[in-house]
């Protein structure tokens, strides 16, 4: 059974994907030249760079950056590929997403999300308050709490500032490496999105598959969103054990002294970020994912802009999917691949979240198969 849909013009999202692939390919030239001209300290010579399949030592230093330059040139040509050339765009996604990535992007994303939690706890209540007076009162109350935490010594703001400054200096020193890693995984996501667009594009009069109908997408999207939610539980609950006398990191930790207060705080932030992300996965099939819920006083009842869910959901789905291979490789090197795949089920989490986002985009009319 098929659903007949009229031929659709490329959506704004599809055009943006083509443009992103073109711009990403342009960036391959300065990055490749950087590595080619400075092989000792280039972004792919950093100590943290640990690709899934490292090149043999016998490979000359100029070969990999030269291949990167060639990939950039090819990307400029492939960015506007015809639907029948989708294997080429899929090859770009596979090479950059599964072979050249490391676990650094997911580590960076996790810690950035952890940092956003206390920032969000301070700013979100003010934004959600309805009316200028309510916002002012909320801001004053939060400021009073923060001052109280500092006066009573519960929070040492000087130590927090020192930690943030030290972390900022460390990140600045690694900015080149992190930029290229983000560029790598972003490119994989862009090429994957372009591949999806080409595969879903139908010719004039060619019927769309039945699964692409909004009512069908609602059914399989619900299964995908609950699967993604379940995948968030192992990591989130494991990190929350750092708040208990029985911390768990790949196995029980007997020495409680190894988990000072700072580590427990990280456990709280990382665990909360993972579980919060899991709950957001459910929003892709719930009513509050289409209209702001009642507790968001300033926005309640208004439609949720689809891209608010589609953009971050797509980014995380791509990152989780591409982290599956390097995470499995890390588990193999550490001698415990099964535990790594269970604690970090990116092999299932990424595809499930991607399917949930696709179903949401179909139902909200942002992706049309036809």
Automatic annotation (TrEMBL):
Signal sequence segment: none
Highest taxon, organism lineage: Bacteria
Record keyword Hydrolase present: no
Keywords: Membrane, Transmembrane, Transmembrane helix
Keyword Flavoprotein found: no
Residue stretches spanning the membrane: 12-37, 57-78, 85-103, 109-129, 136-158, 178-200, 220-237, 265-285, 306-332, 344-362
Protein name, as recorded: Uncharacterized protein
């Amino acid at each position: 059974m098929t659903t007949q849909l009229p031929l659709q013009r490329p959506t704004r999202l599809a055009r943006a994907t083509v443009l992103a692939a073109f711009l990403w390919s342009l960036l391959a030239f300065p990055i490749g030249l950087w590595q080619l001209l400075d092989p000792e300290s280039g972004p792919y010579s950093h100590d943290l760079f640990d690709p899934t399949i490292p090149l043999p030592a016998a490979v000359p230093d100029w070969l990999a950056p030269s291949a990167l330059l060639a990939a950039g040139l090819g990307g400029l040509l492939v960015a506007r590929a015809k639907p029948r050339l989708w294997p080429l765009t899929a090859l770009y996604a596979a090479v950059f997403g599964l072979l050249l990535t490391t676990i650094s992007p997911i580590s960076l994303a996790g810690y950035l999300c952890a940092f956003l939690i206390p920032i969000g706890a301070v700013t979100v209540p003010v934004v959600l308050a309805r009316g200028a007076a309510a916002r002012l009162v909320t801001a004053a109350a939060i400021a009073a709490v923060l001052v109280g935490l500092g006066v009573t010594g519960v929070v040492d703001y000087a130590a927090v500032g020192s930690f943030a400054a030290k972390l900022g200096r460390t990140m600045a020193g690694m900015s080149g490496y992190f930029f290229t890693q983000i560029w790598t995984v972003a490119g994989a996501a862009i090429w994957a999105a372009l591949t999806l667009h080409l595969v879903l594009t139908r010719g004039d009069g060619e019927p769309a598959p039945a699964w692409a109908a909004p009512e069908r997408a609602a059914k399989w999207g619900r299964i995908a969103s609950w699967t993604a939610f379940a995948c968030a539980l192992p990591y989130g609950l494991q990190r929350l054990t750092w708040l208990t006398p029985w911390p768990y990191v790949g196995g029980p930790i007997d020495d409680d002294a190894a988990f000072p207060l700072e580590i427990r705080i990280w456990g709280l932030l990382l665990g909360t970020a993972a579980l919060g992300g899991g709950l957001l996965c459910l929003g892709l099939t719930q009513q509050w994912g289409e209209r702001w819920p009642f507790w968001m006083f300033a926005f309640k009842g208004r439609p949720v802009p689809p891209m608010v869910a589609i953009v971050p959901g797509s980014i995380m789905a791509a990152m989780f999917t591409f982290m599956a291979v390097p995470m499995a490789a890390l588990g193999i090197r550490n001698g415990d691949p099964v535990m790594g795949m269970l604690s970090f089920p990116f092999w299932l989490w990424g595809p499930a979240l991607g399917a949930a986002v696709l179903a949401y985009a179909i139902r909200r009319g942002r992706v049309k198969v036809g």
